[in-house]
């Protein structure tokens, strides 16, 4: 219980649990390939948060592991987010070719970032993927899809999480980023819940 008194550990625990819970709660109705794409995105966030949690708990040997998982979240996970969002908004199932191409692209970006040790590039990739996802959701709003609105809220929260240091709230930026990401994941879950609902 003393460990949970550390705000960094608690926020990481919340983020890790949220990713797993939302995936288990809302994504069973998705087709196999779509579920895999969403799963890679959400579980990569949860694994990164869990590694961060263990690192704050005193297991310093996980420093490199945390860096690798962070890079995976912002490359492979972000690419999967874009394709999964496209399939959600277009109401299509990811074909085997699209699924394979997504994994190849994401893994290639991940490999390049980790091999050449240019972790800052992963931030650019993640930001680009957020922008592309927002553009995709604009198509959904044109079709009055409620799920598109939830994904837009989610991307806004993810974007805010990357700029948590600039938000004037009396909370550590790391913890604020984790809570914003947890809210973003919840919005994604609600997007899946409202997949076939119309806005107005």
How does this model look, in words?
- By secondary structure, this protein is mainly α.
- The protein has one domain.
- It is built from seven helices and no strands.
- Helix 3 (63-90) runs parallel beside helix 5 (119-142).
- The mean pLDDT is 88.
What is the structural class? Answer: mainly alpha
Q: Quick check: average pLDDT?
A: 88
- Computed Rg: 17 Å
Low-confidence region ranges? none
Total count of helical runs of at least 4 residues:
7
Largest sheet entry: none
Shape: globular
Kindly summarize this structure in a few lines.
The protein is an all-alpha fold. The protein has helices spanning 7-26, 32-56, 63-90, 96-115, 119-142, 146-162, 173-193. The longest helix has 28 residues, at 63-90.
Q: Could you give the topology of this structure?
A:
Elements: H1 7-26, H2 32-56, H3 63-90, H4 96-115, H5 119-142, H6 146-162, H7 173-193
Features:
about 200 residues; single chain; mainly alpha
């Amino acid at each position: 219980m003393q460990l949970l008194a550390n705000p960094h550990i608690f926020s990481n625990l919340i983020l890790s649990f949220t990713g797993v819970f939302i995936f288990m709660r809302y994504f069973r109705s998705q087709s196999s390939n779509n579920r895999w794409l969403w799963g890679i995105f959400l579980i990569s966030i949860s694994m990164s948060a869990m590694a961060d949690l263990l690192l704050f708990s005193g297991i310093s040997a996980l420093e490199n592991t945390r860096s690798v998982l962070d890079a995976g979240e912002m490359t492979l996970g972000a690419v999967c987010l874009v394709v999964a969002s496209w399939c959600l908004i277009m109401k299509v199932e990811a074909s085997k070719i699209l699924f394979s191409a997504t994994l190849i692209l994401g893994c290639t970006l991940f490999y390049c970032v980790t091999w050449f040790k240019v972790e800052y590039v992963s931030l650019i990739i993640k930001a680009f993927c957020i922008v592309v996802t927002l553009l995709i959701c604009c198509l959904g709003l044109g079709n009055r899809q409620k799920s598109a609105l939830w994904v837009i809220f989610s991307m806004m929260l993810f974007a805010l999480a990357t700029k948590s240091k600039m938000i004037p709230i009396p909370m550590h930026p790391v913890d604020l980023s984790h809570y914003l990401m947890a809210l973003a994941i919840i919005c994604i879950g609600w997007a899946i819940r409202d997949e076939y609902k119309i806005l107005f």
